[in-house]
Amino acid sequence: MRIVRTIAGLRAELAPIRGRQGPIGLVPTMGAFHDGHLSLIRRAREQCGVVVVSLFVNPTQFNDSGDLDVYPRDELRDAALADEIGADYLFATSVSVSGVSDGLEGEHRGREHFDGVATVVTKLLNMVGPEVAYFGQKDAQQALVIRRLVRDLDMPVRIEVCPTVRADDGLALSSRNARLSAAKRERATSLHRALRAIQDAVLAGERDPVAATEAALAELTSAGVEPEYLALVSTDTMTPVSRIEGDVLAVVAARVGPARLIDNALIQVPALAGNTTMRRP
Question: Residue 117, SS3?
Fold first, then answer.
């Protein structure tokens, strides 16, 4: 694996092999790799002839400067992991999307959060020119923003969203989990239990979003977790639904100790889609 630090260097590396070794895949990251990141790199390795992993801690994605200051950074470790899986290149170095970026994370972290995401991803897509770029379902709103961005700008790239990777206790893997003590980590598992409670309510026939979230709120409250938001939203617009009809996305965000955590689950109405896709730990 080669480590490239400049745009010119990256383009020089990719130019002679473009179109000759199969599709180029891109996995954008902010480093501090965990199994979720590694699953994206593995998927890219399976599907693409050339795999580029970018590593850039983007300051515009942090609405809290303290969070930016303590965000874990270990390039040597990340490089070793990417190399072990089979990445070919580690690239270690404002576009705005309206509508889908306004609520949820956009509301709580500021519109500039997704503006920063869109800017950096646009630059990466232009620099690498991949046929496929890989993102995780845990950041569902971010993935939708990027899909809309690619569509609106007519970029010739396919966005593949890969399933959320979870620990055995159901907690969605996140670089920020490293900041949780054992006790706070146990409290953090209530986010997944809350999503599971919504699933169970829908499977039991509940179609009112407010009623469906009551048991979820109880799970969070019993763990001493106060959500920033807990909602059922459209999978296409990320806006709250007035009734559960067809697929909806259950989304939650909460601060547990020093870490701000997000999670989500696709909820399907049994009569329309059979069993839900949400996995129980």
Answer: helix
